[in-house]
Amino acid sequence: xxxxxxxxxxxxxxxxxxxxxxxxxxxxGTSISISDAIPVPMVSYDSKRDQHRSSLILDEVLSYFNxxxxxxxxxxxxxxAYSGNLNFVFGEAYVNGKAAVIYLKRLRPE
Length: 110
Fold this sequence. Notes:
By secondary structure, the protein is an alpha/beta fold. The protein has a single domain, classed as 3-Layer(aba) Sandwich (Collagenase (Catalytic Domain)). The protein contains two helices and nine strands. It has helices spanning 13-26, 54-62; strands at residues 2-8, 31-34, 45-46, 51-53, 72-77, 81-83, 86-89, 91-93, 99-103. The strands form two sheets. Strands 2-1-5-9-8 form a five-stranded mixed β-sheet, with helices on both faces. Strands 3-4-6-7 form a four-stranded mixed β-sheet. A hairpin with a 4-residue loop joins strand 3 and strand 4. It is globular. The model has no long low-confidence stretch (mean pLDDT 97).
């Protein structure tokens, strides 16, 4: 399997490299590449909640999916996101799909 890590916004290189190494351990034999970052889509921001709507970021990540380059694409964003009626999410994916996104903001002990 080929997996592309797609930074959404500013993600430190050391974080991307750590994720790539850990993913290779979990999915041995997987080819993992890190692509250029894309901006966080401003349309995803909900000022009333001070959060981003996850589905809009996921759709943006999916728009960069190229089946000639990879089998899957994983967006990595350092924003606070929500989905539907959930107060927050750590990530979102299309079930049996080609794209997923994870959010780092709430993973940090602060």
